[in-house]
Fold this protein.
Amino acid sequence: MKGRQHVQNVLYAIVIGSMITWLLVGCGKLDDDNRPTAPAVSSTAPFAYEEAPQTEPAEPDTLPPVSGDVLISDTLKNGQSTGEVSGGTFTPQGVQLHGGNGFIHYSIPTTPSGYIEFNAQGFIPGELHGGTEYKAVLFTMWSGSEGYSYENAAYIFELRKYGYIQGRPDASDAFFFKIKSQGVWEEGHFHVLSWDAGATYRIRIEWGNGQTRAFRNGSLVATGSYHGQFAPSNHQIQIGAQPLRQRVSPHNLLISDVVVGRL
């Protein structure tokens, strides 16, 4: 009798188990396998490949006038500039910078949250000059009251199109933020991009609230962060070589349609 009861219990357990299995399989899974998952992101890799779609630059038909939050509006196509041009020649297409030492310089009110945008042509893929010491900068900001000293100045902002790194030939095609704010240095990732020397790119750089972003033809291509507010007294900005010319710019850029404003 006990043996028969044991067999019945086993059969009963099998039947119940089969019913549960049918319910789970027939009615759908009860786990999260079917939920969308976020793509894997490497937050530690020093090089971030964030190539943006190749789009035409959104060149403005007319530049906005200087008023309110628009601090600078400078076409550079009419043979003059509201800033200072050094190492460059005015052309009907804009300012043609010569070599890597040319620049376009402006003074603005202290602007903790702002932007600059401009057209730029002439970025050479894989560009390197001067061997292992080559580091190119596209845009800089600093305090005119303190000077441009990596050691002593409280505020230095550089967007680099980087340059030489051993074993990384793509480093010269990368955007990279290096920023000193309130005496604290911060460095971002290298954002490797493709370039066409004959293409005109609309570059836009934004800063504010400890964050900075770079756009190319409307697409976000690089990000960075910095300490506190970037608020230098006697606020200076420059397209091209940095003030000490220890960092040259990408060579022979054609620059036009500069707009600077507050965010």
In short: Helices lie at 2-26. Residues 67-262 form a domain with the Jelly Rolls fold (CATH 2.60.120.560). The first strand starts at residue 47 and ends at 49. The CA atoms of residues 172 and 184 lie 25 Å apart.
